[in-house]
Amino acid sequence: MAAILLPEMNIDDEAARARAELAKEPAYCVPKRMEWKLVSESEHSRIAEDVQRYLARRGNEFDATAVEEALRSLFEPRFNADDGAAVPAAPESELQTFRRQEFNVIRQKIDDPDRMPDLRVIPSEVPDDLYGIVTRVNLVERLCETRAFFGFSRLEPQTVPPSEMPDAAIRQLFRYPPVDIADRWLPAVAVFGEGIYLELSEDRLREWQQKNHSWLADRLSDDFILRLSELPQAMAPEGVGSREWASRFLLVHSLAHVLINQLVFECGYSTASLRERLYISADPAAPMAGILIYTSAGDSEGTMGGLVRLGQPERFGAIVRRAISRASWCSADPVCSENLGGQGSRQVNLAACHSCVLLPETSCETINQGLDRAMLVGTPEDRSPGYLSELVETYMVD
């Protein structure tokens, strides 16, 4: 499991410094976090005073109010960076709620190295080629990703609710699980990197779904949508996902794959070095259709900036057009593009094989499941239903 480190935007400078000092003391903060969760809110000031004395002994003087605000920021993260962010109409899972928090942060400008040293997001211009198709391109010049190993299963994956994941992982990793909460740990690593974030036009996406309603109904059967909804990593809405959600997921996910396959030729990174992070929701009040393509390394300085440069408007438009052109034809066509009801380990792929859009499994959030490049470029017999089929035509003309 992985998560992007998000800043607490609405916190004053002294509290931010206190939070930074506390973040350096995970062994001290873990039991304090458990205590914070167990006591009533009226007891939080007492815990803050204890932490204030602890920091003072280490040569860091902070006001008790600032320490309490720092603790609340650490232990009850709100990530309310965008007060105008849309609120979903339907309840969402815990994982989807956190993903939405990332979405609300990473789609805006963040450039404050003193208070937020581990996340820097600079808005870029949308290339003319993509005007009306993409509404936002952000250059993520620095990010911090934390990856935690919470267990494994063989052959058939076991679906474990997020609330039970830590306990299930500890039972797998320890022969004798520790009783003391301070000793209950999971192996994790923090890595630093860079990336490109892009967001599809919501108006264009809905127009595409309405225009191709019959084609989508024929291509995405109810059984296929049910199988896709049961994919844990897809974070489908409660119950069975709708055809609107399924087509959105396949479109955004397939676009991420074809972009990664093209970027490896442009930036010098290997395919396994790039990763995707998907922000997808068909909620009518708060839809999401965003992609973060990023690379990360164990070095604290992160990577060298080669990926971010490709997100600049004079380069990115041509890269997307080349990626779509490559995706328009597969060496396994027409077999790859045929609608056989599903392919892959869980029968949740359509037009997707190792000759076109599949990636190393570590680069894909869903382990190469939930893909269909026909959503992007149509089929060899009919290109018109593809969301980006016009880019194929213009590229060939050029």
Q: How would you describe the overall organization of this protein?
A:
There is one protein chain. This protein is α+β, with helices and mostly antiparallel strands and 398 residues long. It has three domains: 2-75, no CATH class; 94-144 and 191-391, no CATH class; 150-180, no CATH class. It contains 14 helices and six strands. Strands 1, 2, 3, 4, 5 and 6 form a six-stranded antiparallel beta sheet that branches. Helix 1 (13-23) packs across helix 4 (64-75), helix 3 (44-57) packs across helix 4 (64-75) and helix 10 crosses helix 12 (313-327). 37% of the residues are buried. The model has no long low-confidence stretch (mean pLDDT 86).
Give the H and E element order: EHHHHHEEHEHHHHEEHHHH
Can you give the mean pLDDT? 86
Count of helical segments?
14
Q: Based on DSSP secondary structure assignment, what is the total number of beta strands?
A: 6
Straight-line distance between termini: 43 Å
Structural class: alpha+beta
What is the alpha-carbon Rg in Å? 23 Å
Q: Let me know the largest β-sheet.
A: 6 strands, antiparallel
Q: Percent range for helical residues? A: 25-40%
Binned strand content: 5-15%
* Number of domain units: 3
Low-confidence stretches: none
User: What shape does the CA trace take?
Assistant: globular
Quick structural summary:
This protein has 398 residues and is α+β, with helices and mostly antiparallel strands. It is 39% helix and 14% strand.
